[in-house]
């Protein structure tokens, strides 16, 4: 794997530089995870394509900004990272919160820089009043109690029960290693997120919507509704997977991504 690098004291990331003209990938992790959740995708694609996998502000090895981190701040960080790395175009791949950040990135960068959009186990709707209250209450709880109790409670919803024990351990380890201040700041930011549905109707690049068939957080019905909004999109439902199909069923996820990237490369 490529060596750890750091940029501007706030973004930790992995990057590789194969000799290729293929469109680079920017992999955006979910909450409360880190860039290691993309290990199967980096293993599959980094030998032949530039793959950039950052730790978002407040997660992994990136420093924490307490308070509130809106999705727009995450997107601004990623834009600055792409600029610093000299990446002029890319395919955005985001899962869960990372998918919402990918939508925010598309709003900032547009089709001139984003050549493809992969939205996995996510949804574009604005937060409801009840959801806002729930996220802020969870932020308070994480600051008060830490991450372990939460991680124990949600593990079996993040991944399907039959998932390999090593994958379960990896997911649990990422959650418990996350700094509660960073997780809380992101939760408070997501509680204020805008409605991305109008944006999706105007996306002019190819899109891929992926969802685990057993996902309880973002069920198949959410993915179908999002797919219907996008003018040029493919929907892939991953059987025997829950909220993290890229880790639970990496071969199926990578196959869908590979087919999508082949089209993006052909159009570029």
Question: Would you kindly provide a brief summary of this structure?
Answer:
It comes from Streptomyces hyaluromycini. One of its GO terms (molecular function) is hydrolase activity. By secondary structure, the protein is α/β, with parallel strands linked by helices.
Describe what you observe in this structure.
Residues 25-256 form the AB hydrolase-1 domain. InterPro entries: AB_hydrolase_1, AB_hydrolase_fold, AB_hydrolase_sf. It comes from Streptomyces hyaluromycini. One of its GO terms (molecular function) is hydrolase activity. It is a single chain. This protein has one domain: 3-Layer(aba) Sandwich (Rossmann fold), CATH 3.40.50. The chain is 47% helix and 16% strand. It is built from eleven helices and eight strands. The chain has an eight-stranded mixed sheet, sandwiched between helices. Helix 2 packs across helix 3 and helix 5 runs antiparallel to helix 6 (165-177). Mean pLDDT is 94; it is low at 1-7.
Write the layout of secondary structure elements.
Layout: E1 4-7, E2 11-14, E3 25-28, H1 39-45, E4 51-55, H2 71-85, E5 90-95, H3 97-113, E6 114-120, H4 129-145, H5 148-158, H6 165-177, H7 180-190, H8 197-200, E7 207-212, H9 220-229, E8 233-238, H10 245-248, H11 250-267
Helix pairs in contact: 2-3, 4-7, 5-6
List the keywords:
11 helices; globular; alpha/beta; eight-stranded mixed beta sheet; Rossmann fold; 268 residues; 16% strand; 8 strands; single chain; disordered N terminus
């Amino acid at each position: 794997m490529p060596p750890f690098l750091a940029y501007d004291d706030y973004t930790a990331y992995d990057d590789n530089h194969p000799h290729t003209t293929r469109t680079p990938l920017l992999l955006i992790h979910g909450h409360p995870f880190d860039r290691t959740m993309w290990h199967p995708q980096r293993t599959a694609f980094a030998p032949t394509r530039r793959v950039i996998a950052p730790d978002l502000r407040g997660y992994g090895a990136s420093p924490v900004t307490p308070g509130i981190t809106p999705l727009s701040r995450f997107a601004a960080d990623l834009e600055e990272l792409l600029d610093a790395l000299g990446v002029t175009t890319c395919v955005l791949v985001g899962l869960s919160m990372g998918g919402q950040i990918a939508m925010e990135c598309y709003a900032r960068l547009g089709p001139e820089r984003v050549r493809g959009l992969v939205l996995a186990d996510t949804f574009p709707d604005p937060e409801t009043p009840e959801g806002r209250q729930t996220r802020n209450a969870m932020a308070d709880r994480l600051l008060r109690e830490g991450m372990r109790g939460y991680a124990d409670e949600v593990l079996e919803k993040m991944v399907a029960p039959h998932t390999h024990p090593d994958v379960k351990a990896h997911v649990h380890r990422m959650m418990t290693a996350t700094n509660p201040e960073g997780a809380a700041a992101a939760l408070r930011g997501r509680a204020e997120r805008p409605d991305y549905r109008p944006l999706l109707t105007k996306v002019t690049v190819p899109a891929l919507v992926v969802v685990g068939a057993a996902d309880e957080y973002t069920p198949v019905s959410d993915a179908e509704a999002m797919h219907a909004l996008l003018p040029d999109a493919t929907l892939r439902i991953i059987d025997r997977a829950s909220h993290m199909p890229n880790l639970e069923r990496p071969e199926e996820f990578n196959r869908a991504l590979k087919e999508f990237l082949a089209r993006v490369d052909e159009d570029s």
